[in-house]
Amino acid sequence: MCRQEVACGVLYNSQGKILMGLRTSHSEDGGFWEFPGGKREQDETIQHCLRREWKEELNLTIYIDRELYSCTMGDKYMCRFFIGKILDEEKIKMFVHEKIVFVDKTEMATLNMFQSDKQLLNII
């Protein structure tokens, strides 16, 4: 079975904090904090996917440094996490998240996150 690729961004702002988005309560897996991103479209690189998703969901331009981690989520998804930085945080807008926060690693550990996302706490 071929898994759908999902790109997620572990992206820092100018103060060295990471942006996290709270999934809306009416969405699938609502109430969980996530590293924003989305599904790769056909004929799109995974890096382009991440740039597109951050622009669509948060109105932000990003710089991708490198791939940080990847994992599978059941039989359905292959999640690929990238580390980088936000280039224009003053333009931020929320289009799909209930709330967004900038947190450090200690604050991040207190958030209700997916298990796959929590794995990153040992890497970043």
From TrEMBL:
Q: What class of enzyme is it?
A: hydrolase
Write down the required cofactor(s). Mg(2+)
The EC code for this enzyme is: 3.6.1.55
> What keywords are assigned to this protein?
DNA damage, DNA repair, DNA replication, Hydrolase, Magnesium, Metal-binding, Mutator protein
Q: Which GO terms describe its biological process?
A: DNA repair; DNA replication
Question: In Gene Ontology terms, what is one molecular function of this protein?
Answer: 8-oxo-7,8-dihydroguanosine triphosphate pyrophosphatase activity
**SUPFAM superfamilies (UniProt xref):** Nudix
InterPro entries referenced in this protein's UniProt entry, alphabetically: MutT-like, NUDIX_hydrolase-like_dom_sf, NUDIX_hydrolase_dom
Q: Where is the Nudix hydrolase domain?
A: 2-124
The residues that cross the membrane are none
Q: Which residues form a coiled coil?
A: none
Gene3D superfamilies the record matches: Nucleoside Triphosphate Pyrophosphohydrolase
Q: Known catalysed reaction(s)?
A: 8-oxo-dGTP + H2O = 8-oxo-dGMP + diphosphate + H(+)
The UniProt similarity line reads:
Belongs to the Nudix hydrolase family.
Q: What is this protein called?
A: 8-oxo-dGTP diphosphatase
Organism expressing this protein natively:
viral metagenome
